[in-house]
């Protein structure tokens, strides 16, 4: 199946897709040239001198975990530079001029373009090699252009009216919202990253906020891989098509269009339906698949509104509408390792109703994809279905309720509720129970009270806010949005894809909605 349809304009050449990538190094077929993406997201040629220099600086290449409060706000002299950045401002590495974050370039190292250029000229002189000098000059030119774009992008975000943005009736950002760009920063730098707010002279950053509140950031080791910092830039583009699960009807796969990209999050639109049904997912979500996945795996694909099942085919739909499809390589679930499971479609089990957690109900496994399976409550509407894996704390073997003194909710309409027994029900439905050995125990999370993190606002999923853990149980967190009343608090699973470590928005280029005490804003804007 073709991955893209015909277009009136020539398709944009994908230089990244034309290369063979391994360990962050790209090579062109038939050429000995090597390429890499530098810290500013610019593609550059790797020379022998640069390889040697890269080896010398390997220890300075940071991971993407954000330090905890003990690390970010340590009493020990971790670095005088860190203290000056977070409290007294920045120091230019070229002229030693001191200033605030709003006076410096976005790299946080230079006070002006002139200093940046002079610094690079000094580096060129030290290299002494004409060939390497040419490569560095190209790097300087590209870096300057990228920095200018990033500064323009930040100004556009800063000048938006934040209050109006949050109170739109559609509860989603405008289609033309500026997409954040990836910036390669270290652990401490992510916390020092300033978030523009309400004007060019106002800014907000995690490090200052943690110090001001005497708070701690949840350590990055507490987060799952899909919650933590991504290893590469998202390649999804607005307008491309894919297949995905309807979050309101988890058993249904639908034709979807990417309507918006913000960092590593994408807003998906059901083709031919109203925008009010749009929803957000992370780019690493297991709920999205490339075009043709349903046909390949035997799943039913629901066509766009107004089209019958027999009328729809991807090939004709692509050609007729002159659309493009999202490349298969962008979907992280395409090459994942599947863990063997004892669960099978049709098996029975007991499951907690997530919408009514006090109910434990008779349920059936109705679908399986990789290591996940779909739980359906017998004789209930499919809107109650949910996907989980063998470690989910919401599922149990048959007879678990009886053995643990809990009440089992039988299927609606079952004739003999008082005398319900699993042995009889399994015989009546010609079903098998999910074996007890298939259920795996998930260890409790290690989040603690008052830890800070970044959380998607479920009432307005376009927004990610600064939040605090105010209560916990073994597998859930009670989230409080800083600056809001506790009536907006709610419980969320500790493994939810909607929670992230402090600095995630800065790393991925996603806007963050922080809490802004007046005195704190004044300190940041000086």
UniProtKB/TrEMBL annotation:
Q: Name one GO cellular component term.
A: nucleus
Q: Which UniProt keywords apply?
A: Chromatin regulator, Metal-binding, Nucleus, Repeat, Transcription, Transcription regulation, Zinc, Zinc-finger
Pfam name, any one: MBT
Domain of life from the UniProt record: Eukaryota
* GO terms assigned for molecular function: chromatin binding; histone binding; zinc ion binding
Gene3D superfamilies, A to Z: 2.30.30.140
Acidic residues compositional bias, start-end: 150-167
Compartments (UniProt record)? Nucleus
Per the record, where are the segments of Basic and acidic residues compositional bias? Answer: 120-129
Is this entry keyworded Chaperone?
A: no
PANTHER family to which the protein is assigned, alphabetical: LETHAL(3)MALIGNANT BRAIN TUMOR-LIKE PROTEIN 3, POLYCOMB GROUP PROTEIN
Q: Output this protein's name.
A: Lethal(3)malignant brain tumor-like protein 3
Q: What is the lineage of its organism?
A: Eukaryota, Metazoa, Chordata, Craniata, Vertebrata
């Amino acid at each position: 199946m073709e991955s893209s349809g015909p277009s009136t304009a020539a398709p944009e050449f994908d230089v990244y897709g034309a290369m063979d990538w391994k360990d962050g190094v790209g090579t062109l077929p038939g050429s000995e040239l090597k390429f890499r993406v530098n810290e500013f997201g610019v593609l550059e040629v790797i020379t022998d001198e640069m390889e040697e220099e890269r080896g010398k600086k390997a220890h300075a290449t940071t991971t993407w975990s954000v330090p905890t409060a003990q690390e970010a706000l340590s009493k020990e002299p971790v670095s005088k530079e860190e203290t000056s950045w977070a409290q007294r401002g920045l120091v230019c590495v070229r002229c030693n001029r001191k200033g605030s974050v709003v006076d410096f370039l976005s790299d946080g190292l230079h006070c002006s373009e002139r200093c940046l250029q002079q610094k690079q000229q000094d580096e060129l002189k030290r290299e002494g090699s004409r060939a390497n000098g040419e490569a560095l000059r190209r790097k300087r030119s590209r870096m300057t252009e990228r920095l200018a774009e990033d500064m323009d992008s930040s100004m556009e975000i800063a000048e938006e009216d934040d209050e109006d943005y949050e109170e739109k009736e559609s509860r989603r950002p405008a289609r033309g919202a500026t997409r954040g760009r990836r910036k390669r920063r270290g652990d401490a730098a992510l916390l020092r990253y300033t978030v523009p707010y309400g004007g060019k002279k106002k800014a907000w950053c995690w490090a200052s906020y943690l110090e001001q509140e005497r708070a701690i950031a949840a350590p990055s080791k507490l987060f799952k891989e899909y919650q933590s910092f991504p290893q590469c830039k998202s390649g999804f583009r607005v307008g491309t098509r894919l297949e995905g699960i309807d979050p309101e009807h988890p058993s249904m796969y639908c034709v979807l269009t990417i309507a918006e990209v913000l960092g590593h999050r994408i807003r998906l639109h059901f083709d031919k339906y109203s925008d009010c049904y749009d929803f957000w997912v992370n780019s690493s979500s297991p709920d999205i698949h490339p075009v043709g996945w349903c046909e390949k795996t035997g799943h039913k694909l629901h066509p766009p509104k107004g089209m019958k099942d027999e009328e729809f085919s991807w090939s004709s739909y692509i050609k007729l509408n002159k659309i493009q499809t999202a490349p298969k390589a962008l979907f992280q679930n395409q090459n994942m390792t599947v863990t063997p499971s004892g669960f099978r479609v049709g098996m029975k089990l007991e499951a907690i109703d997530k919408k009514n957690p006090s109910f434990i109900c008779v349920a059936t496994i109705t679908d399986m994809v990789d290591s996940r399976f779909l739980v359906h409550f017998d004789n209930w509407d499919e809107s109650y279905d949910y996907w989980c894996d063998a470690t989910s704390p919401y599922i149990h073997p048959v007879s678990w309720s009886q053995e643990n003194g809990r009440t089992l909710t039988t299927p609606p309409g079952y004739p003999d509720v008082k005398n319900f027994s699993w042995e009889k029900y399994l015989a009546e439905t010609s079903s098998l129970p999910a074996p007890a050995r298939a259920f795996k125990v998930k260890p409790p999370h290690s989040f603690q009270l008052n830890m800070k993190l970044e959380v998607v606002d479920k009432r307005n999923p376009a927004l990610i806010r600064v939040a605090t853990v105010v209560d916990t149980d073994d597998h859930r967190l009670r989230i409080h949005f800083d600056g809001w009343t506790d009536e907006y608090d709610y419980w969320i699973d500790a493994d939810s894809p909607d929670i992230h470590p402090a600095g995630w928005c800065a790393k991925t280029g996603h806007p963050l909605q922080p809490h802004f005490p007046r005195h704190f804003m004044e300190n940041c804007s000086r």
